[in-house]
Amino acid sequence: MNRSGPKHAMFSDLASVSARHAGLMKDSPRTRALVVTVVVLLTGLALFALLRLEFSLGRIGTGLAQLAHFISLMFPPSPGTQLSAFLTALGETVAIAFLGTLFAAICSFPIAFLASRNVMPVRVVQFMTRRFSDTIRGVDTLIWALIWINVVGLGPFAGVLAILTSDIGSFIKLFSEAVEAIDNKPREGVIASGGSDLHGVCFGIVPQVLPVLISQVLYYFESNTRSATIIGIVGAGGIGLHLAEMIRTYEWDQVSFIILMILITVAVIDLVSSRLRTAIIGKRTAAI
Amino acid sequence: MASALFRLPDHQVDVLLAPYAAAARIRRMSTLLGVAALAVAIVLAGLMSEIKPANFLQNLHKFPDYIGRIFFLDDGRLVFADFGEWYWGLGKWLAKLGDTLLIAYLGTLMGAIGGFLLCFAASNNLTTSKTARFISRRFLEFFRTVPELVFALLFVVAFGLGPLPGVLAIFIHTMGALGKLFSEVVENIDMKTVDGALASGASRWQVIRFAVVPQILTNFISYALLRFEINVRGASVMGFVGAGGIGQDLIEAIRKYYYSDVSAILLLIIGCVMVIDVLTERIRHGLLSMERAT
Questions:
Q1: Are A130 and A176 in contact (CB under 8 A)?
Q2: How many CB atoms lie within 10 A of CB A173?
Q3: Which chain A residues are closer than 8 Å to B241 by Cβ?
Q4: Residues A238-251 pLDDT 10s
Q5: Which of A16, A218, A223, B267 could form a disulfide with A273 if both were Cys (CB 3.0 to 4.6 A apart)?
Q6: Minimum CA–CA partner of A247 in chain B
Q7: Contact assessment for residue B171 and residue B110, using Cβ atoms and an 8 Å cutoff
């Protein structure tokens, strides 16, 4: 009871406090109207989407029951008789991600300079290179996989090429952004002491951006391992083929085993790549 | 005013240079070792993924051929010659594209709400219970590590074909990805306002509403918009496994060699993704400048 005294006194003053700081206590009518409009629009769009995409409680209910049944069949996870096939496919997946990321990095490194405003003096080339990378990025890895299957046939090689193609788009964007964010003084110094423009890029820019690029490539390696697990669904090699097959044939214990394998692999690669990152660029936070 | 550089005698310079040379040698050795390891990894991975350079070079011309081929109609004319023929299914495809956007939108919205609800339990400055934190973090990790297409495959079997499993797959994956990002934002807030709210007797809900949310809202919205961008791309391939959207038409066109349809649908997707990119970037910049203004 002894605490209620001052507290009560504080709140008795509330009316005069809010009168003095009206701006802080209440949003302006304009802000409020804006918030209400945005919320109403978002909710309206969501309701429209629910109707248009044929959501129904009945379907969700039966689906959830089915899902619960499947999950109960997933335990304990078991490889069945195909452990060695799964392991090979998993190795294939990691190999696809590794080669795709590496080659994409190598290919996009020189192109990225063409897309950087501070290196490329011809604006048209800079603009076109950027749009080129945007176009490539607009197409999902899985679509690239389908296209490459038409070229090199089914198999992991199509997967490598798919990851390579879609990553070139991302790397050109990321690399050129890194190049545009550099400190220009080392480059000016190189050119002032008699270096050519190319020297300026090699000795003034590359040493600055290399750590950032390497950490981005390592980060992409990890995320590509995840994408590589699914390109098998369309036939481009890796564990995805087995996964899709097991799901379609209702072998739930093997499905959970494969998912477990993927989780462990991704965790291991995450660990390895963060170790490598600190080993190569030292202890500092990556600029991603 | 001696202007000539003072140079130590050679035997003294050698002594001083020796540790530098040793350090440089060690560095060079470790670089060489790294390169060798990389080379071994490349060869192994190349064997693993059945790369045949000769076969590749032999078939490489098919890639530009294919890209060129999709820009020709069946009667051999360039697609641009007859727009009506090229985009014969425009109405159908636009409807499917709209569905794709709605799938991405609904999945992102539900995922953002789910991530918002879970992020407070997963952040170490607002949750003192270690078990709650551990469980919510493992859940988020699981949701974002399993690719959304795998969830889609599972859900297609459980819920039946159509956009519903696609939305749910994007929802689950987005919840995992955004939950982690959100909880990192929450861990970086200024705790003084939280202390202030707690000191004046606020409940947990009031602390979050009045001390935490105002600090994080713009960041959350910005991340959610970024995720929406990613999800539009993701939703465009949901149809590959029967989970709705334009992917269904695209995979059919590719598999059945309807060349001009492939280019028509691809350009629709690319254009749509670009427009969404530009729009979300505008909104995010607007949000950031709004935050700076206040």
A1: yes
A2: 19
A3: 233, 244
A4: 888 888 888 888 88
A5: A218
A6: B154
A7: yes
Task: Give the whole-angstrom CA distance, residue A242 versus residue A88.
Answer: 11
A117 contacts A131 by C-beta, under 8 angstroms: no
Dist. CA A222–CA A211, nearest whole Å: 17
The identity of residue A214, as a single letter, is I
**Alpha-helix runs per DSSP H in A55-155:** 57-73, 83-114, 123-138, 141-152
A88-122 pLDDT per residue, tens: 888 888 888 998 999 999 999 999 888 888 888 88
Which DSSP string corresponds to A7-74?
HHHHHHTHHHHHHHTHHHHS--HHHHHHHHHHHHHHHHHHHHHHHHTT--HHHHHHHHHHHHHHHHHT
- Measure the CA–CA gap between A140 and A167, rounded to whole angstroms: 10
Q: Which residues of A touch B163 (CB under 8 A)?
A: 53-54
Cis, peptide link before residue A207, omega less than 30° from 0: no
ipTM: 0.78
Give me the DSSP letters along B47-99: HHTT--HHHHHHHHTHHHHHHHHTTB-TTS-BGGG-HHHHTTTHHHHHHHHHH
> Which value, to the nearest 10 degrees, does the dihedral of the CA atoms of residues A143, A144, A145, A148 take?
130
The pTM score is 0.81
Q: Across the interface, do A262 and B146 touch by the CB < 8 Å criterion?
A: yes
Facing residue for A63 by CB, picked from B59, B159, B240: B159
